[in-house]
Amino acid sequence: MHREQISRLAHADHPIAAPLDDDSVRRLLERAVPRDGARVLDLGCGGGEWLLRALTAYPGLRAEGVDVSAGSLERAREAARVRGVQERLVLHHEDARDFAASHAFDLVISVGATHAFGGLPATLAAARGHLAPGGRVLIGDGFWAREPSPEAVGMLGELSDLPTTTDRVVADGWTPVHGHISTREELDDYEWAWTGSLASWALDHPDDPDSAQALATATAHRDGWLRVYRDVFGFVCLVLRPTSGRSGPRTMP
């Protein structure tokens, strides 16, 4: 069972592939979308759920998504047809790091996809390159809510605490104009959905050759979450605008 298939099954009951509930997603989009009629880009869009919700809420909005997963993009196309927004959505099957558009965007989204760029600094640099004057970025990434163990760092990578993360974003030439820190309920709901959806699929398909691997993956993920990083991992979404007088590519310290 390859990683893409595991992710698809694990997110079956939580299409926003990040620890956010529906109200949080709605509020973030309300703050991030500058106006109806805006152009929106999602770098690492997966199944396109952020774009689908934005298109549904704003009938004049046009959106584009970029992802390396052909299967995820096909599911996004089908969901767009079901919701009646397919005429306003363009999807690109390519590496988001290499994506080049013929026009700029009023909002660039990248939530839970910074790993695709090699971290938060590179993700913001990519977003800046697509941003129209006066545009905004909606970024979502993890942080350490408490001092992590070496095992937690090994699982989730080199993260900073929230003040340091925000300071680095500001030093890079961005001003946060809104944000959301995922609650304990959102974090736990996401992990229960991830592990539960994957485990349920395995139990419902005992004769499938991938069933045992899926159940083992769900079990290992749940164990790592509960024993290693549940009490130290946090997730933040920031709505950012370029700071006046600080445009152009920059590098975080």
Average of the residue pLDDT scores: 94
Please give the alpha-carbon distance between the first and last residues: 38 Å
Helix content, binned percent: 40-55%
Sheet/helix structural class: alpha/beta
What proportion strand?
Answer: 15-25%
Q: Any idea what the radius of gyration is? A: 18 Å
Main pleated sheet = 7 strands, mixed
DSSP helix count?
9
Order of helices and strands: HHEHEHEEHEHHEHHE
Identify the strand order in the major beta sheet: 3-2-1-4-5-7-6
* Strand segment count: 7
Descriptive overview:
This protein is of the alpha/beta class. Helix content is 43%, strand content 22%. It has 9 helices and 7 strands. The protein has helices spanning 3-10, 22-32, 49-57, 70-83, 120-130, 150-156, 162-171, 184-204, 211-229, and strands at 39-43, 62-67, 89-93, 105-111, 131-144, 174-181, 233-242. A 7-stranded mixed β-sheet has the order 3-2-1-4-5-7-6, sandwiched between helices. Helix 4 links the parallel strand 2 and strand 3. Helix 1 (3-10) packs across helix 8 (184-204) and helix 8 (184-204) runs antiparallel to helix 9. The longest helix is centred in the C-terminal third of the chain and has 21 residues, at 184-204. It is globular, with a radius of gyration of 18 Å. The N and C termini lie far apart (38 Å). The model is unreliable at 245-253 (pLDDT under 50).
